[in-house]
Amino acid sequence: MQQRPIGDRTVSAIGLGEMPLSIEGRPDRRQAIATIHASLDAGVTIIDTADAYSLGVHEHGHGEELVAEALAAYPGPTDDVLVATKGGHRRPGDGSWTVHGDPAYVKEACEASLKRLGVEAIGLYQYHRPDPTVPWAESVGALADLLDEGKILMAGVSNANVARIDEAQQVLGGRLVSVQNEFSPRFRSSEGELEHCERLGIAFIPWSPLGGIGNADDIQRDHPAFAEVAAEVGASPQQVTLAWMLAKGSRVIPIPGSSRPETAIASPAAAGISLTPEQVSRLDAS
């Protein structure tokens, strides 16, 4: 599969978003692990999760534990798999999300993630979402401390605008390697952040690249150009969506979610689709 740089690592151009395997509507554990294994079989070497991916505080860390279990049970090598996790969110158990950007909490969350993942250092740790009650620089400063302490190997931020990206880069002393924002055919307000990351030479990781859980089939209805191009290249509209994102920048690494082995295999195949500049322009305008 096509490869992309992230910090000092090289990973598959398309990763796996683990969230659908841990929140509402998730499959049983056997299918969830089979889905992760299918993704690895397809060449995926970056798995995105978070401590808050769960049904509530009673099982906080479900997603990380699932990833750790799947990697331990995988029959093939996993040394090249980068696990990216996040801290700074919690789920009360009523379907909502709460933000927690206090530096002490972020560090505490990282310690818990280390134990759940069973590692001495987390490959990529990202601050999940800005907390309006805590200065951004203080929250990101916790990542700087974790880097200095060797508890995380790379640091990133999520749901950040251009100004926050620049501030994070300053706080981290130039060590910011990734920005994870929502981006899809229906949600394009992060295009400026994508372009900014390209200029800075850091990874831009679109979450919900196919429109979110249960919305992937809406692409061809709401954005017919993706279906038209799909017919031209012999692929699905969802695969064309991922190929379009890859064509938008050399540092873009989409992480589509999957809850079935079939989709976990289909998504990475999009890295092999070549779109012409005319097709990309048509999709941009869709």
Any overview of this molecule?
This protein is an alpha/beta fold and 286 residues long. It has one domain: TIM Barrel. 40% of the residues lie in helices and 15% in strands. The strands form three sheets. The chain has a seven-stranded parallel sheet with strand order 3-4-5-8-9-10-11, with helices on one face. A two-stranded antiparallel sheet has the order 1-2. The chain has a two-stranded antiparallel sheet with strand order 6-7. It is globular and about 50 Å long.
Instruction: Indicate the percent of residues in helices.
Output: 25-40%
* Total strands: 11
Number of helices: 11
Over the alpha carbons, how many angstroms does the gyration radius reach?
18 Å
Structural class: alpha/beta
Low-confidence stretches: none
| Second CATH tier, the architecture | Alpha-Beta Barrel
Oligomer: single chain
Features:
globular; alpha/beta; seven-stranded parallel β-sheet; TIM Barrel; single chain; 286 residues; two-stranded antiparallel ribbon
Helix-strand layout with pairing:
Blueprint: E1 3-6, E2 9-12, E3 16-17, H1 29-41, E4 46-48, H2 62-73, E5 82-87, E6 89-90, E7 98-99, H3 103-117, E8 124-127, H4 136-148, E9 155-158, H5 162-171, E10 176-182, H6 191-200, E11 203-207, H7 218-222, H8 224-233, H9 237-247, H10 261-266, H11 277-285
Helix pairs in contact: 1-2, 3-4, 4-5, 8-9
Summary, kept brief:
With 286 residues, the chain is an alpha/beta fold. Helices cover 40% and strands 15% of the residues.
